[in-house]
Amino acid sequence: MTSAAKAKMMQDLRQAGIADGVVLAAMEATPREMFLTGHFKAQAYEDATLPIGHHQTLSAPAVVAKMTEALEITDRMKVLEIGTGSGYQAAVLARLCRRLYSIERHPALLKAAEDRFRQLGLVNITTMASDGSLGWPEQAPFERIMVTAAAADVPEALLGQLAEGGIMIVPVGLDENDQHLLKVCKGKTDIETEDLGPTRFVPLVAGLSSP
Predict the structure, then answer these.
(1) CB 3.0–4.6 Å: which of 87, 96, 139, 147 could bond 170 by disulfide?
(2) Which residues neighbour 175 within 8 Å (Cβ) at sequence distance 6 or greater?
(3) What is the mean pLDDT of the chain?
């Protein structure tokens, strides 16, 4: 059942316009059911947003693929992810980049994600339980930054940690019915922003969650 469901997911992604073969291969190689618990495992390959606890969600496959493709990653890049969550998006990104740094404000979610990374043999991921809105100054700059929670605006702290020529993908908008996915490209003297369309994410919250 899982292989047939995964095959349908891959077909749906192609029909949705995902054309980057490297991104598609990373999605196909990542066992999505591993990042869910209980009866939600059976829905792993449906194009649906699913709960992972702590009022957080696992984005639908089409959203993960769209954001990953828009990031334009190569295997020589250092990437920052804000919001590890279940670890699924991180597992996809880690197959594409040289090094991934991922921040999660819920320690329990982070521990579960770290266990999954170990099981999958993904050794190029470094994690931290922290306030993602502050980024990871000690490791900056990053060629690519992906934010998996909605900010009120493009976070200045993260923009400051983006390398010149870098790309950040970030959902913006505090009203979940009026959010847009932005592609932010940092030039030498200016910032270019492209609206990739409406989206829906949980809010980016400052501070570290209590255990």
Answers:
(1) 147
(2) none
(3) 94
Q: How does DSSP classify residue 150?
A: B
12 found inside a domain: yes
pLDDT exceeds cutoff 80 at 206 = no
Give per-residue pLDDT as tens, 84-123.
Answer: 999 999 999 999 999 999 999 999 999 999 999 999 999 9
pTM, two decimals, is: 0.95
Are 26 and 18 within 8 A, CB to CB?
Answer: no
Residue 63: which domain range?
A: 2-199
CB 132 within 8 A of CB 203: no
What's the confidence (pLDDT) of residue 211?
Answer: 56
**Is 59 in the active site?**
yes
Asked if residue 189 has pLDDT above 70, the reply is yes
Residue 208 within a domain: no
The secondary structure of the chain in percent helix, strand, coil, rounded to multiples of 5, reads 35, 30, 35
The verdict on residue 180 lying in a domain is yes
Amino acid at 29: A
**Helices vs strands, H then E, count in the chain:** 6, 9
The active-site residue, picked from 3, 59, 209, 210, is 59
